[in-house]
């Protein structure tokens, strides 16, 4: 028992002398709240933070990640309102960055962007936190029984600086987004109620034949 306690204390002491891993934060943030409705539109911002803080002090010149989602509930929209951020340079009209979004595999979105700018220009465009992309999804009517929630998460994340060198940092946590799904039945009742209210408002103030 004494030997185990000694080994545990020695291990903790070694950790205290080891250099701390520099951490980044990537997040998936929904616009309009964490509740989605079948038939509606879902917009999700992909953000990054921590490039300048914590002693990392680097620019982002390229990134790759895979985003997983439920293809029975969400359908990715490759055009607007999906779009890329500008912190790696403009991606159209005299492009300063090359960006690709591959949704050929159901439920999996490959995102890649490579800046054509040098480190000095990227430093001017980027702060400690910025938006990488906005991803748009059409929310489908799910098969019954409808799920109570759905999850989006990112994996296989690679980051590099302007020279193409891998950024030696670890993410504090995997970017994950949990959304609550409205039941189609509830939405139908809500629609009927709104239609009834609209019809009621259009009715005349009094019935024919009454004074």
Give a written overview of the molecule.
Helix content is 20%, strand content 38%. The chain is of the alpha+beta class and 211 residues long. The protein has 3 helices and 12 strands, in the order H-E-E-E-E-E-E-E-E-H-E-E-E-E-H. The strands form 2 sheets. Strands 1, 3, 5, 6, 9 and 11 form a 6-stranded mixed β-sheet that branches. Strands 2-12-10-4-8-7 form a 6-stranded mixed β-sheet, with no helix packed on it. The protein is elongated.
Structural class: alpha+beta
Q: Which consecutive residue ranges, at least 5 long each, have pLDDT under 50?
A: 1-21, 185-211
- Assembly state (oligomeric): single chain
Mean pLDDT: 81
- Counting DSSP E segments of at least 2 residues, the number of strands comes to 12
